[in-house]
Amino acid sequence: MNHFMYDGYHANEHSLDDIKTINSVLNEIVSTLNLDAAMPPFLLPYYYAMESDDDGISAFTTLRGGHITIHTFPRRGCLFLDLLYDGYFDEDKLVAILRRVFELQPQYERKLRTERRFFDSTIDSKRIWQGGDSKSDFGPHIIAKIENADVNFERIFDMLDKMPRSINMIPICRPYVLKSTLVKPAYISGIVLIAQSHIAFHYSIEERVLYCDLFSCSFYKSENFISYLKRHFGEFAHMTIIRGSKHEENMDDNELRRTLKYGKWMESISDKR
Prior knowledge:
The chain has about 270 residues and is of the alpha+beta class. It has helices at about 15, 20-30, 90-100, 155-165, 220-235, 245-260, and strands at about 1-10, 40-45, 55-65, 65-75, 80-85, 110-115, 140-145, 175-180, 185-195, 195-205, 210-215, 235-245.
């Protein structure tokens, strides 16, 4: 159960805000990496953020025991991608696609890979939850593995439908729940988009193991996610990873680039007396 996380900055703003581009990227990733997809891409433009700089596109496609999610922030010039999959994939090919399409450079990206089935704890210690800083980090990504879980389609849908509001998050679509593929091991997968992020469940029917993800832009509200799951399942293994390190610094740099690019005309009317 491989999980690859990618945070990219200084991306091409037009590509980040283009539905056709995001759709093509998801399809290209599935095809190039030879992944078992269970559905076509679902894309949702989100233009209702409290701050206009947080507007963008959220998109996902469900895979066998996992998903690809992309959250773009065009005005901030950044994107966050997750690829969770029960099988091998070449992350170098994935990164090459992202760099080509979004004009990303290696010095402005953060990459992290972990093994979810064995709950790899050798992950970069600097990215593990240390309290978080809302001024310099985008937000937390909570990953959990719940063993001996007793769930079905209806329960997964109900949890994803009720959870966002119960933990004070904003859902921006209804949950999507489906059986991943006919290929064994079979999974029931569910995902719901919340403002600027997502919640996803993948349940291995044979192993009775539930893999949970919450990617959030809110440090405070994300703590409620663990409490919610504990009320339903008891104790379980979980880890919180910080995403978007030095996010504010990158946003400031991006704003400077926007000024240089779109404000160039001002040089012609400046008072040079």
